[in-house]
Amino acid sequence: MDLILQLLFTGIGIGAVYALVALGFVLIFRATNVVNFAQGEFSMVAAYLMVVCVELGLPYWLSFVIALAGMALLGVIFNLGVYYPLRHRTYLPVIIATIGASILLSNSVLAIYGPQPQVLQGWFDTPGIQLGPVYLDSQYLLIIGVTILLVLFNFWFFEKTLLGKKLQATSQDKEMASLLGISVSTMIMITFIYSAVLGGLAGILVAPVLFVSIQMGSTIALKAFAATIIGGFGDVAGAIVGGLALGVIETFGAAYISVPYKDGFAFLVLIAFLVFRPQGIFGERVAEKA
Amino acid sequence: MSASDNMIPAPAVRSKPLIIRHLPYFIGAAVLVALAAGMQFDGYILNILLQATTFSIAVFGLSVVLGLCGQINLAQAAFFGFGAYAVGLGTADLHLNFWLCLVGACAITLVAGAFLGMSTLRLGGHYLAMVTISFQQIVTLVMINAVGVTHGPDGVANIRRPELFQSSQSYLAFCVAMLAIVGYLVWHLPDTKLGRAMRAVRDNELAAGVNGIDVFRTKVSAFAVCAVLGGLAGGLFAGGFAYVSPDQFSFAESIQFLTMSLLGGVASPIGSVIGTGLLILIPEWLRFLKSVPGLYLAIYGLSVILIIRFMPDGIWGFVSDAFTRWRAHTKAPPVAGALHLKPATTGGDIVLEVTGLSKHFGGLKAVDGVDIAVKRGSVHALIGPNGSGKTTTLNVLSGLYKATSGKIVLDGTDITNMAPHQRTAAGLGRTFQNIRLFRSMTALENVEIGAERPGNTMIGKGDDALTERAMEALTFVGLGSRANELISSFSYGHQRLIEIARALASNPTLLLLDEPAAGLNSTEKLELHELLKRIAAQGLTILIIDHDMTLVSEAAQHITVLNFGRRIADGESMAVLRHPDVVSAYLGSE
Fold first, then answer.
1. CA B245, CA B174: separation in Å to the nearest integer?
2. Which residue of B has its CA nearest to A82?
3. Does the residue A106 lie in any domain?
4. Quick check: B126 and A91 CB within 8 A?
5. Contact, A36 vs A28, CB < 8 A?
6. B218 with B358, same domain?
C-alpha cells in the first residue's frame, strides 16, 4: 500500500510534465491544425539553456527567466521559419517540416554540447519531505504545483481575457476572425510563443528529475502526444487528464512489469486507445464533413 | 469465360504490348546489372553501391505510400529492420536457406504493415505519423532489450548469402537486378487500377469514395506495399553486409529514408533513386562532418525544412513537371464511338425509393422523415430554400452521412447502411456542389477512375477498353479533345462537365447531380441543359438538386420540395411549382 501511494505520487509528478507539453501541442493544434513534432525539443532546448546559465554562475531565478525568454524567441523563429512559409499547404508538408525542425534542434544541441548528459540542480535545497508513509520529493511537488497554477491560468486566460477570446476565435475560424479585425498571423505568433514557453517550462521543471539529454525532448514529446490522444485530441482537459494517466500507468508499469520497456508502455496504451477508443476519454470534437 | 471474350470485338487500334513498349527500360536495366557484375570495384565503392541499391528499394516503398497515396510512414527503418533481422537471425542462428528467409522477411513485414495500417488508417494523418513513430520506438526497444532473441545491442553477425551469389560483386549484381524489377513495378503502379485508386485517395478522399473506391482498403494496401518493400530491402541489406545491429534501424534512419524520398521527389521511383544516391554519396564526400556528433544530422533536419519549403516536388518533380506540361499538348486518344448508357433494370418501376429518411445533428433535425420515389427513366428534382436539407439528403443518399433512421432502396437493393463506395458499386453516381476532382490528374485519368467502378458492365477488359470508355464519356460532354490536360487548366464550368463525365463513365443506374448549375454563366447553363436532355434521352434516371428554377422546371418532370427538413410538396412539376406552400416557402407568405 505504501509503495502504491509512493508510485502514485511519482506517476502524477511525471504525468504533470507530460500534461504541460501536451497542453502546448493542443494549443498549437487548435490554432493551426498542425501537430508540432518539435514540441518536445522546446523542453530539451530550455533545459540546456538553464544548464548553461546556471554553469555561468547566474542565480537560479535569473537563469529561469533567461531560459523562458529564450524559449519565447525560439517560438518566434520557429513560427517564421517552419510554420509560416507553409501555412497555405496541406498538413503533410507541415508535419514533415516540424519533424525536420525537431531533428535540426536536437542535433544542433548535440553538436554544440556533446552527447554527455548534464545534471541540473533542483529549485529547492531540501530534497523533500516525509509525509506519513510517502516521501514527497520537493521537485515533484514543485512540478505538480506549477501545473495546477498553469491550468488555472490557462482557463482564466482563454475564457476571461479578450486576447484569449481572440485566440479562440482564430483557432475556430481564421477567415471570420480576420474579417472581424483580428490579426490572424499575430494570434498564431502568440500561440507559438506561448506553447514554446509552456514546453520550455516543462523541460526546466523535469530536468532535475531526469538527466538533461538530447533524447529527453523526443521521449517527452511522444508521450505528451500519446497523452493528447488518450485524453481526446484537441481537448485541453483531455490533454491534462491524459498526461496524468500516462505518467501513472508508466510508473506502475516500470515498477511491476519491466524497467527496460518503461518507455514502451505509453505506446502500447496509445495503440490500444487508437484501436478501441480513437476519440479518447473526452472525445475528439470532429465535425461531420460535408 | 471464353464465350464472353468472343462477344467483345477487338478494338481497331491496338497499342503494342506493354512489354515491347517498355523494352528500353529492360535493356537499360540489363546493362546496369552487367556493369555491376563485370566492373571491378574496390571494397569501399562496393559497399556504397550496395547500400545505395538496398536503401533505394526501401525508399520506393515511401514513394508508394507517401507519393502515390498521401499517407505518412515514419517507421520505414523499422520495417527495413524487420527484414534485416529476419534474414540475419534466419541464416546465422537458425541456419535456414537465404531465399526462405527473404520470403519470410517479406511475409512478416506484409503482416506487420497491414496490421499497423488497419489499426490507424481510418484516422487522420496526424495519428498515423504518431503511431508509426511509436511503432518505430517499440521495435527499437525490442531489438535492444530482447537479448535472448535479437542479441541486443551486439547485433547479429555471420549473416549468410545465397550459394549463387557468394562474391560481393555477384551479390551486388543480384541486388541491382532486384532494384530494376521492383523499380519497374513501382513505376508502372500509378497506371494500374490500384495505383489510380491511391492517387484518387491522395487527391480527394471523399470523391474517391463516391466513385467506388474503397478508401480504407486502398490506404492499407499502400501501407502494406511500403512495408514489404522495406522488408525486402532490409533482407537484401543484411545479406550484403553480413552484420546488423539495432542502431541501423532507429528513428533517425526512418527520417533519413524520408529525406531521401523528399529530396529526389516523392512521386516517382526515379526520384527515390536520385534522392537515395545523393544522400549516400554527399555524406561520404563530407565525411569530415561526421567528426562532430550531431552536426551531420542537424544538416539533415535543416535540409528537410528547406526541401519542403522550396522544392516540394523534389529534384525529379522539377523535371517531370516539364514533361507533364509537354504531354498536355499531345494528342488525345482516338474515340471509337459514342457513349452508351445502359442503366441496369433489375428492380421495378421505381429506381430510388426513400422512406422516412431522417438525419439529425444533435438536436437539429436537418432531414426529418422524408419520402422520395424516383421513377425509372425520369428526371426528378429535389428543391427547397437554403437550409431546407437538400444537400444533407444527398449526402445521406450517397453515404457520406449515416441516416439517423429511414430506408433507402436503390433498384431493389437496400443501400441504407452501405459505405459510399459500395453504393457506387450498386449503381449510384454523383457530382458535387463544390467540385471534387482529383486535381493532380488529367481529365482522362479522372474519368477513367469513374469508369473503373466495380460492377460497370459497359467496359471490356484491359486498359485500352478503359481509356476508350473514358474518352467516350469525355467526348459526350464535349471535352474529348482536351483529355490529356491537367484539371487545373479547365474553367469552372468545364470542371463541372468533367465531374459529370466521370459519373457517366461508370454507367450508373441513378445519377445524383448536386446543384450542377451553381456558379455557371448563362451560356454554360444552356449547355448543361442540353447535356441533361441528351443524358435523359438515353434512359438514365437523374435526381437533380438545384436552385435554378428555369433549369428545374424545364428539365424535370417530377419535383419534390423540402423545407425545414420536411417534404412539403411532391408531384408533377408545374403543379408543384404552383402549390401555395411552395410559393410561400420561396417567396414568404402574405
1. 23
2. B305
3. yes
4. yes
5. yes
6. no
Q: Is residue B216 part of a domain?
A: yes
A287 and B CB contact within 8 Å:
no
pLDDT in tens, B383-402: 888 778 888 888 898 888 88
Among A33, A106, A267, the residue to mutate for chain B (most B Cβ within 10 A)? A267
Inter-chain residue contact B123 with A289, CB threshold 8 Å = no
Q: What phi-psi label fits residue B521: left (phi over 0), alpha (psi between -120 and 50 degrees) or beta?
A: beta
- In this prediction, residue B246 has a pLDDT band, given cuts at 50, 70 and 90, of very high
Looking at residue A228, which CATH number applies to its domain? 1.10.3470
- Greater pLDDT, B188 or B80: B80
> Residue B288 and residue B177: Cα distance in Å, rounded?
33
Is residue B246 classed as helix, strand or coil in its secondary structure?
helix
- Range 165-224 of A in CB contact (< 8 A) with B: 214, 218, 222
Domain end, chosen from B220, B250, B280, is at: B250
Could you say which DSSP state residue B386 is in? T
In the numeric block, the cell 508508466 is attached to A250
- Look at chain B and report how many structural domains it folds into: 2
Residue A290 with chain B: CB contacts under 8 Å: 391, 395, 400
From A101, A108, A260, residue closest to B294, measured CB to CB: A108
Question: Of B250, B279, B294, at which residue does a domain stop?
Answer: B250
Q: Please answer yes or no on whether A96 and B206 come within 8 Å at the CB atom.
A: no
Q: How many CA atoms lie within 13 A of B304 on its CB side?
A: 29
Inter-chain CB proximity A107 and B295 less than 8 Å: yes
Of B122, B138, B297, the CB nearest to A107: B297
Residue B297: its chain A contacts at CB < 8 A? 103, 107, 110
Give the tens place of pLDDT for each residue, A32-47: 777 888 888 999 999 9
For residue A286, being part of any structural domain is answered with: no
Structural domain range at position A95: 2-276
Highest mean pLDDT among A65-79, A179-193, B125-139: A65-79
Partner-chain contact A270 B131, CB within 8 Å: yes
Nearest CA in chain B to A106: B298
Q: What is the pLDDT of residues B497-531, one digit of tens each?
A: 999 999 998 888 899 998 888 888 888 888 888 89
Q: DSSP string spanning B41-73?
A: --HHHHHHHHHHHHHHHHHHHHIIIIIIT----
- Residue of chain B whose alpha carbon sits nearest to that of A259: B145
Domain that holds residue B151: 22-250
In this complex, is the C-beta atom of A267 within 8 Å of any C-beta atom belonging to chain B? yes
Query: What's the CA gap between B32 and B230, in Å, rounded?
Result: 22
Amino acid, res. A259: V
Please tell me the distance from the alpha carbon of residue A58 to that of residue B387, in angstroms, as a whole number: 64
Please check whether residue A244 is in contact with residue A35, taking contact to mean a CB–CB distance below 8 angstroms.
no
